């Protein structure tokens, strides 16, 4: 019987075997034809190519021409549909088994369990996160990644979380076999050649590896032309080595690794090490009738109204709200002791149902062009629809997110409850003038809110038990996204 250390070594050697004994694969041969990469990036990409064995490698530049080609390819494959009613907008329908973040299959890998979650009582599963041992992770990796991109193109995405060049910004490189991810990352992050130039200067970066888990040729047909492998989904974070590996899902929350995976989970560890904060918070600027402007950060769990608050249209005369970000805030005290924050994202990945001209007119204006819609309903006049919007005009029919005819009063919803829009932040009519400030905006107040269970208070009087070494505190807003306490 092997002990844990022996098992770890055996599995590690097996991974090396799988990733190194494939020098004749098409993917490795194509590596020589890609543009010159900074040495650290090239080393990461080479390792991913050797493990995943793609047919081709494409380094993403982020140009408009490249984006147009990516979208045209997705349309040709049947993964997205053009929406002529709007300017450069698209509709994607996923496999019904791939529609949301899968928290039960989202894990943190550390040497010691206590570095990820409080130690639960024997036989009890922790409610504060999912820890996986290093040996179990290596076994899971061997079962998933070797050869997973066969027949597909590996896209290499250099991206920036935050304005390129800012002292608060962090960089990443994601390899993926999903062109849908490339198109979406182009909206949600600063992506392409400018980032590659920063990496050439020696900037550190988070290594992100993603695969839909459906190598070619396919062994079974796709649903909605959407490649995914729901039975093998695993989203893994290795904070000690700044790595993220995601397998089996194409849904944005699981595949756009710059978002929750990097900007909250890995970033919270980087922030802990470096002395700053990575928080699940919106950032807005509010100006009084007297012209006094303050910046506020606010923490709410997912689908609680962060986007609506960040884009609020004040009812009080003379007040003005401007949006810096609707989901994530990176905050750090400056040399003068002032807390400053940036929105590390470049776009909005918002929940569609409930968004309307009544609840969020600025969001509706933002998503009128250059937007990727996912799992919303469609109208017969080539538009989109979801619950919360006004009923379509007479004669306009609806198709639900499954692609089936839908009528008002149907038992099932037209749009999936977690259907999304992915739109550039710069298009927001009330985007704050300082939203890309390299030094960040000064935070004057922080608000906490959420879905309050009956009888539960937000604030407690600290007692000695709170500071017991085996006790921990965690705000529910960050529960799915942080792992250190």
Automatic annotation (TrEMBL):
Residues 43-272 form the Phosphoenolpyruvate carboxykinase GTP-utilising N-terminal domain. GO terms for molecular function: GTP binding; manganese ion binding; phosphoenolpyruvate carboxykinase (GTP) activity. GO terms for cellular component: cytosol. Gene3D superfamilies: 3.90.228.20, Phosphoenolpyruvate Carboxykinase, domain 1 (3.40.449.10), Phosphoenolpyruvate Carboxykinase, domain 2 (2.170.8.10). The keyword rRNA-binding does not apply. Its cofactor is Mn(2+). Residues 1-22 form the signal peptide. It holds the Pfam family PEPCK_GTP. Its EC number is 4.1.1.32. Keywords: Decarboxylase, GTP-binding, Lyase, Manganese, Metal-binding, Nucleotide-binding, Signal. Residues 276-456 form the Phosphoenolpyruvate carboxykinase C-terminal P-loop domain. It is an enzyme of class 4 (lyase). It comes from the Eukaryota. The keyword Nucleotide-binding applies. Coiled coil: none annotated. Pathway: Carbohydrate biosynthesis; gluconeogenesis. One of its GO terms (biological process) is propionate catabolic process. Belongs to the phosphoenolpyruvate carboxykinase [GTP] family. Monomer. This is phosphoenolpyruvate carboxykinase (GTP). It comes from Mastacembelus armatus (zig-zag eel).
């Amino acid at each position: 019987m092997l002990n844990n250390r022996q098992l770890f070594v055996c599995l590690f050697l097996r991974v090396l075997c799988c990733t190194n004994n494939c020098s004749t694969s098409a993917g490795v041969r194509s590596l020589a034809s890609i543009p010159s990469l900074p040495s650290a990036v090239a080393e990461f990409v080479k390792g991913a190519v050797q493990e995943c064995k793609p047919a081709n490698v494409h380094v993403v530049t982020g140009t408009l021409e490249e984006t147009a080609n990516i979208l045209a390819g997705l349309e040709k494959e049947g993964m997205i549909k053009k929406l002529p009613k709007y300017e450069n907008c698209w509709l994607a329908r996923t496999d019904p088994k791939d529609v949301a973040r899968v928290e039960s299959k989202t894990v943190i890998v550390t040497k010691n369990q206590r570095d990820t979650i409080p130690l639960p009582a024997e036989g009890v599963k922790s409610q504060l996160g999912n820890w996986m041992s290093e040996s179990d992770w290596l076994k899971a990796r061997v079962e998933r990644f070797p050869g997973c991109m066969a027949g597909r193109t590996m896209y290499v995405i250099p991206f920036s979380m935050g304005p390129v060049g800012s002292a608060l910004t962090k960089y990443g490189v994601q390899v993926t076999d999903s062109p849908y991810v490339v198109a979406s990352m182009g909206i949600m992050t600063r992506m392409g050649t400018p980032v590659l130039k920063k990496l050439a200067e020696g900037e550190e970066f988070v290594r992100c590896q993603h695969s839909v888990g459906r190598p070619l040729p396919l062994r079974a047909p796709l649903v909605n032309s959407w490649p995914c492998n729901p039975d093998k989904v695993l989203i893994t974070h290795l904070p000690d080595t700044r790595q993220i590996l995601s397998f089996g899902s194409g849904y944005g929350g699981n595949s756009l690794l710059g978002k929750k995976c990097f900007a909250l989970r890995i970033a919270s560890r980087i922030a802990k090490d470096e002395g700053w904060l990575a928080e699940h918070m919106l950032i807005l600027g509010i100006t009084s009738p007297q012209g006094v402007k303050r910046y506020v950060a606010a923490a709410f769990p997912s689908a609680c109204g962060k986007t609506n608050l960040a884009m609020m249209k004040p009812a009080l005369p003379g007040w003005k709200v401007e949006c810096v970000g609707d989901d994530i805030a990176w905050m750090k005290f400056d040399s003068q002791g002032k807390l400053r924050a940036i929105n590390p994202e470049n776009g909005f990945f918002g929940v569609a149902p409930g968004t309307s001209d009544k609840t969020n007119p600025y969001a509706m204006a933002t998503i009128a062009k250059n937007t990727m819609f996912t799992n919303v309903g469609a109208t017969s006049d080539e538009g989109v629809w979801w619950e919360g919007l006004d009923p379509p005009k007479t004669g306009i029919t609806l198709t639900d997110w499954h692609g089936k005819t839908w009528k008002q009063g149907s038992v099932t919803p037209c749009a999936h409850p977690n259907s999304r829009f992915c739109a550039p932040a710069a298009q927001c009519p009330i985007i704050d003038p300082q939203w890309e400030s390299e030094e960040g905006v000064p935070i004057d107040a922080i608000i906490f809110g959420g879905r309050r269970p009956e009888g539960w208070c937000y604030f407690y009087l600290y007692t000695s038990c709170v500071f017991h070494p085996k006790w921990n505190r965690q705000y529910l807003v960050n529960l799915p996204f942080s792992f250190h306490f």
